[in-house]
From TrEMBL:
Keywords: Lyase, Metal-binding, Zinc. PANTHER family: CENP-V_GFA DOMAIN-CONTAINING PROTEIN-RELATED (PTHR33337:SF40), GFA DOMAIN-CONTAINING PROTEIN (PTHR33337). Belongs to the Gfa family. This is GFA family protein. It comes from Vibrio diazotrophicus. PROSITE patterns: CENP_V_GFA (PS51891).
Length: 140
């Protein structure tokens, strides 16, 4: 009988001051449209992966990771104190490691599993299917 190999994902912040590994697999991948996620990402939604049975290991810059916990809520965000990039955190309240998808250095093993809090969706992001798309920055 062969032993199943545990997947290890690597990730980092934009300035590379912080690096991490997630040892384990993701259970879910939510695109959260709540107003708090819109504020802390500056975008239409947050894209977070949840790994309840995984282990988060900081391989570089753990002291550069800061966490903001929004008062009277479970909403929290970890980030690099140098570049502000979103970083993973252990969310004790839901017993899971929460990993911002964009912080990974490779594609996750799963696609988004659900859009959540769509009742709070930014009106400008509800239907983007007719918006032109470009491979790079569009020319003037």
């Amino acid at each position: 009988m062969t032993e199943a190999k545990t997947k290890t994902y690597k990730g980092s912040c934009l300035c590379s001051a912080v690096k991490f590994e997630l040892i384990g697999e993701f259970q879910s991948f939510f695109l959260c449209h709540c107003s708090r996620c819109q504020k802390d990402t500056g975008s239409a939604h947050a894209a977070n992966l949840f790994a309840p049975s995984a282990k988060l290991v900081w391989t570089q810059g753990e002291n550069d990771v800061k966490t903001y916990l929004h008062p009277n809520s479970r909403h929290a965000k970890s980030f690099c104190r140098h570049c502000g990039s979103a970083l993973p955190m252990v969310a004790d309240s839901i017993k899971s490691v929460v990993v911002p998808a964009g912080s990974l250095d490779e594609a996750p093993s799963i696609l988004p599993t659900a859009k959540i809090f769509v009742g709070s969706c930014a009106s400008w992001s509800k239907d983007l299917s007719d918006i032109p798309s470009f491979e790079t920055f569009p020319s003037a």
